[in-house]
Amino acid sequence: MNLMDFMRTTIRKLGNSQGVLIPKPFLAQLGLENEIEMDVEGDTIVLRKPRGKAREGWAEASRAVAASGEDGLVLGEFGNAGDEELEW
């Protein structure tokens, strides 16, 4: 199959959502495996390879915030309702 080949498919009910099945040759041609990015551009649903891994860079960003001293509690410490009844 070529990307220029168009295919009509059915929108199927999947639980509370709906979806379409993407043929394996389409996925293989684009190198898609387990994850995609999805967007709406005009009247088109666009599926593309993820640009980065989920949470990529979070560890480095956390270290930078900690090093800057800006990682203090925003609301301060406070207990939950009923905590006074707990035995520690």
From TrEMBL:
Query: Where in the numbering of this chain does the SpoVT-AbrB domain appear?
Result: 9-52
Alphabetized UniProt keyword annotations:
DNA-binding
Q: Name one GO molecular function term.
A: DNA binding
Pfam families listed in its UniProt record: MazE_antitoxin
Report the coiled-coil segments. Answer: none
* Keyword DNA-binding among UniProt keywords: yes
Q: Which domain of life is it from?
A: Bacteria
Q: What is this protein called?
A: Transcriptional regulator/antitoxin, MazE
Native species: Caballeronia catudaia
